[in-house]
């Protein structure tokens, strides 16, 4: 959270000596506020002022990194439309150390395969949580090693038993797993292990008051790489806790709760579990640990996540270049649409379903749909004519017929005049493309 120049100025020595390279302390403060300087340039800043500025300028929710590129926290708003959410909820599927090694490998490979391509995005499950349920530290360490050897995904090592974490964590520390749980009875030993291996650790307590106490005691150990678990496993309580933690961190800047939060699902039936996890993705889990491990269940959850963590001010777009669908040839039809991903992929899916190899040229409309782009003057005949020319499609087909969306039939005459292509008005909705394309090819 950035400080204003005046807030920074209050903490400066006010000598106006110019040794920092700016003539006055106020000018230096303004430069710092604009991100154009370093506090160390002033040799007279007191330690107290340095701490105050560092603390006040820290993000309301600390960024915690672990595993293979997983980033938790570092959010600045309560509602995505206020700005955006930055770091999508990390989704981890759990495995138990009670499985034998063969079953464990099969399960890990199944989780590795939970990846999807949709509307030009590639996304998947981010990690695997290895649960210590065997009661045997040696078995836990072995299971963690087997999982680590068979996946590139981020790891969470989860046990209430310090000995199990001590047995398992050092061998996989290079993969920077998240550790858990540090709780009231064991937090000193677990935080010490996390600190020694430079790993983030989950602080788990039963309720927000107990969590507050635990965070303050753990921070006093000189470590701050924490993820919080408020303990509840009932959906209503978990949602209330997640909401309170986010509100206190963002609105009140309450530092003990300025850490990312992990949620655990309680439902066993996969449909119910995904519905529960969807609530936590929406508000406000930084990470979720769940049991469901089949594509049909994970895809809706990950799609919801992709929607929520898309910057609302930057629509998802595709490259506004010529795309081909199927084994195109000089007879292939040429469609134009917009570069808004949902529009483009709706068209592409229907063109593919028509089984007629075709070209699609998405026009750069800043990621807006056909009617929005037309209303905003971004889907004009001149622009489409230029795109046709610059795409080189004329060199790939032996005709000059272009199909435009039915919603902008009104531009057909002018587009024909500007481009020299014969304009064919297509269906209004992409759902009409299959029958349209077949009637075109038959007739
Ligand atoms: Fe002020 Fe420090 Fe710069 Fe001197 S060096 S002008 S005291 S900010």
UniProtKB/TrEMBL annotation:
<dbReference type="InterPro" id="IPR011005">
    <property type="entry name" value="Dihydropteroate_synth-like_sf"/>
</dbReference>
<feature type="binding site">
    <location>
        <begin position="367"/>
        <end position="370"/>
    </location>
    <ligand>
        <name>5-methoxybenzimidazolylcob(I)amide</name>
    </ligand>
</feature>
<dbReference type="InterPro" id="IPR016218">
    <property type="entry name" value="AcylCoA_decarb/synth_gsu"/>
</dbReference>
<keyword id="KW-0808">Transferase</keyword>
<feature type="binding site">
    <location>
        <position position="343"/>
    </location>
    <ligand>
        <name>5-methoxybenzimidazolylcob(I)amide</name>
    </ligand>
</feature>
<dbReference type="GO" id="GO:0046356">
    <property type="term" value="P:acetyl-CoA catabolic process"/>
</dbReference>
<keyword id="KW-0489">Methyltransferase</keyword>
<protein>
    <submittedName>
        <fullName>CO dehydrogenase/acetyl-CoA synthase delta subunit, TIM barrel</fullName>
        <ecNumber>2.1.1.-</ecNumber>
    </submittedName>
</protein>
<feature type="binding site">
    <location>
        <position position="337"/>
    </location>
    <ligand>
        <name>5-methoxybenzimidazolylcob(I)amide</name>
    </ligand>
</feature>
<feature type="domain" description="4Fe-4S">
    <location>
        <begin position="1"/>
        <end position="59"/>
    </location>
</feature>
<feature type="binding site">
    <location>
        <position position="17"/>
    </location>
    <ligand>
        <name>[4Fe-4S] cluster</name>
    </ligand>
</feature>
<feature type="binding site">
    <location>
        <position position="20"/>
    </location>
    <ligand>
        <name>[4Fe-4S] cluster</name>
    </ligand>
</feature>
<keyword id="KW-0004">4Fe-4S</keyword>
<keyword id="KW-0170">Cobalt</keyword>
<dbReference type="InterPro" id="IPR016041">
    <property type="entry name" value="Ac-CoA_synth_d_su_TIM-brl"/>
</dbReference>
<keyword id="KW-0479">Metal-binding</keyword>
<dbReference type="Pfam" id="PF03599">
    <property type="entry name" value="CdhD"/>
</dbReference>
<dbReference type="Pfam" id="PF04060">
    <property type="entry name" value="FeS"/>
</dbReference>
<feature type="binding site">
    <location>
        <position position="430"/>
    </location>
    <ligand>
        <name>5-methoxybenzimidazolylcob(I)amide</name>
    </ligand>
</feature>
<dbReference type="GO" id="GO:0051539">
    <property type="term" value="F:4 iron, 4 sulfur cluster binding"/>
</dbReference>
<keyword id="KW-0408">Iron</keyword>
<keyword id="KW-0411">Iron-sulfur</keyword>
<feature type="binding site">
    <location>
        <position position="25"/>
    </location>
    <ligand>
        <name>[4Fe-4S] cluster</name>
    </ligand>
</feature>
<feature type="binding site">
    <location>
        <position position="42"/>
    </location>
    <ligand>
        <name>[4Fe-4S] cluster</name>
    </ligand>
</feature>
<dbReference type="InterPro" id="IPR051069">
    <property type="entry name" value="ACDS_complex_subunit"/>
</dbReference>
<dbReference type="GO" id="GO:0005506">
    <property type="term" value="F:iron ion binding"/>
</dbReference>
<dbReference type="GO" id="GO:0032259">
    <property type="term" value="P:methylation"/>
</dbReference>
<dbReference type="InterPro" id="IPR007202">
    <property type="entry name" value="4Fe-4S_dom"/>
</dbReference>
<dbReference type="GO" id="GO:0008168">
    <property type="term" value="F:methyltransferase activity"/>
</dbReference>
């Amino acid at each position: 959270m950035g400080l204003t120049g005046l807030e920074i100025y209050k903490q400066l020595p006010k000598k106006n000596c110019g040794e920092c390279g700016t003539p006055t302390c106020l000018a230096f403060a303004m430069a710092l506020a604009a991100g154009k300087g370093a506090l160390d340039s002033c040799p007279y800043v007191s330690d107290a002022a340095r701490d105050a500025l560092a603390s006040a300028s820290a993000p309301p929710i600390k960024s915690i990194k672990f595993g293979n590129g997983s980033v938790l926290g570092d959010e600045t708003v309560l509602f995505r439309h206020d700005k955006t959410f930055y770091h999508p909820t990390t989704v981890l599927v759990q495995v138990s150390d009670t499985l034998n090694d063969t079953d464990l490998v099969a399960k890990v490979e199944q989780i590795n395969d939970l990846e999807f391509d949709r509307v030009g995005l590639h996304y998947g499950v981010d990690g695997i949580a290895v649960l210590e349920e065997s009661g045997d530290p040696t078995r836990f360490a072995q299971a963690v090693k087997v999982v680590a050897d068979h996946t590139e995904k981020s790891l969470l090592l989860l046990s209430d038993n310090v000995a199990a974490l001590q047995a398992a964590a050092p061998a996989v520390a290079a993969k920077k797993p998240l550790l858990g749980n540090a709780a009231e009875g064991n937090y000193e030993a677990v935080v010490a292990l996390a600190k020694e291996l430079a790993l983030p650790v989950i602080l788990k307590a039963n309720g927000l008051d107990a969590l507050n106490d635990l965070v303050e005691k753990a921070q006093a150990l000189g470590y701050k790489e924490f993820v919080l678990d408020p303990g509840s496993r009932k959906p209503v309580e978990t949602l209330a806790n997640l909401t309170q933690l986010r509100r206190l961190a963002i609105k009140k800047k309450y530092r003990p709760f300025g850490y990312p939060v992990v949620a655990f699902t309680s439902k066993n039936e996969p449909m119910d579990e995904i519905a529960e996890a969807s609530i936590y993705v929406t508000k406000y889990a930084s990470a979720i640990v769940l049991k469901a491990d089949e594509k049909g269940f994970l895809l809706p959850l990950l799609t919801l996540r992709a929607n929520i963590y898309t910057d609302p001010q930057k629509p998802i777009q595709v490259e506004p270049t010529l795309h081909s669908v199927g084994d195109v040839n000089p007879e292939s039809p040429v469609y134009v649409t917009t570069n808004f991903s949902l529009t483009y992929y709706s068209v592409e899916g229907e063109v593919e379903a028509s089984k007629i190899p075709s070209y699609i040229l998405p026009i750069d409309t800043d990621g807006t749909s056909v009617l929005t782009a037309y209303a905003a003057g971004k889907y004009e005949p001149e622009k489409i004519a230029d795109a046709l020319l610059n795409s080189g499609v004329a060199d790939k087909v032996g005709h000059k017929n272009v199909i435009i969306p039915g919603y902008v039939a009104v531009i057909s005459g002018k587009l024909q005049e500007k481009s020299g292509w014969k304009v064919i008005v297509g269906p209004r909705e992409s759902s009409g493309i299959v029958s349209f394309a077949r009637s075109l090819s038959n007739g």
